[in-house]
Amino acid sequence: MPSVRDLRDRIRSLKNTQQITKAMKQVAAAKIRRAEMAQKQARPYADTLSDMLRDLMASAGSVDHPFMKAGRAGAPSGVILMTADKGLAGAFNSNVIRAGEIYRRDHADAVFYSVGVKARNAVRRFGQGDHPAWVLNAPSKITAAREVAHRVTDDFVSGKIGDITLISSKFVSMMSQRPETRRLVPVTAADMASKPAETGAPRGAVEFAPSAEAVLSRLLPKYLEFTIFSAMLETDAAFYAAQLLAMNNATDNAGKLIDELTIQMNNARQAAITKELLEIVGGAEALSGA
After folding, report:
1. What contacts 54, CB < 8 A, 6 or more positions away?
2. φ, ψ dihedrals at 161, nearest 5°
3. How many folded domains does the chain comprise?
4. Is residue 211 part of a domain?
5. So what's the pLDDT on residue 193?
6. pLDDT at position 181, please?
7. pLDDT of 165
8. Tens-digit pLDDT profile for residues 139-185
């Protein structure tokens, strides 16, 4: 049985850990508000961009653009694996990495592009040590998203990869975040038609100036950039939600362990006092008998 001193040291250590988890919980709660606000502010632009692209593709018909054509035959898939930079968020990062491993089983020759330190380390474990990587918490997320989009676009157009797939976390609620795998390029009319459109007044005919190809050639790269940027904002919000839940559970578990160890320490201290009393009484009786 542990001594009173050992139990007291363990309780002190748990109290220090509980203070850390409480502080991290408060930090995550503050940061998730900013992350949710940034995500909500970006959502109207994303919805409008999707609606505009859907209308253009429905009206233009056949347009000669690399993003609207299949990639080079036999080229490996390009995968953007997106996680957080840090841990201490339960199974948040490992769930996304597991989704990447599942995709890799079906596409053994897939080429990975990692966003986030945890994703970079996971891709290195996959056997791709030298690969394009970016951090999630960059000074400017839109600049990082633009760099990622330009790199994967160059590789797709040059034929190094046959498609572009994004694996990232979807922020469902404060209690739920799940990994999502979606193909970004090539963009087809069927893919855009499957996305929900806003109901409203009938839309008029769309006229292109100078041409549909020119408009889509400018819009499609922006669509890819902002899709990656939106995924980075959503990953940020999902990470802080997962960290908030994990730190809340850690704080509660530390409190339960402190209560259990306090009871054990009191029992051990009482047992020690009882033992000393019995020794004193036994010694006194021995002396009186002598």
Report:
1. 192, 193, 195, 197
2. -130, 155
3. 1
4. yes
5. 56
6. 94
7. 94
8. 899 999 999 999 999 999 999 999 999 999 988 888 888 999 999 88
Maximum CA extent, the chain: 118
Residues of the chain with confidence (pLDDT) below 50: 199, 201
Domain membership of residue 288 (yes or no) is no
Q: Which residues of 17-46 are buried (b: 16+ CB within 10 A; e: fewer)?
A: bbeebeebbeebeebbeebbebbeebeeeb
Domain that holds residue 233: 42-197+205-242
Mean pLDDT over all residues of the chain? 86
User: Are 113 and 270 in contact, with CB atoms under 8 Å apart?
Assistant: no
Residue pLDDT, tens place only, 236-246 = 999 999 999 99
- Backbone dihedral angles phi then psi of residue 196, each to the nearest 5 degrees: -65, 135
Cα separation, 275 vs 277, in Å, equals 5
Cis omega (within 30 of 0) for bond into 179: no
H/E stretch holding 157:
helix 141-158
CATH number at residue 156: 3.40.1380.10
Q: What is the DSSP letter of 144?
A: H
State the residue for tokens 């979807």: 170
Distance CA 169, CA 142 (A): 18
pTM of the model: 0.83
pLDDT in tens, 197-207: 554 545 556 67
Residue with tokens 């994990």: 246
Residue indicated by tokens 């034929």: 159
d(CA 46, CA 53): 11
CA dihedral 55→56→59→60, nearest 10 degrees, is: -160
Domain assignment present for residue 55? The answer is yes
In single-letter form, the type of residue at position 73 comes to A
Is 17 contained in some domain? no
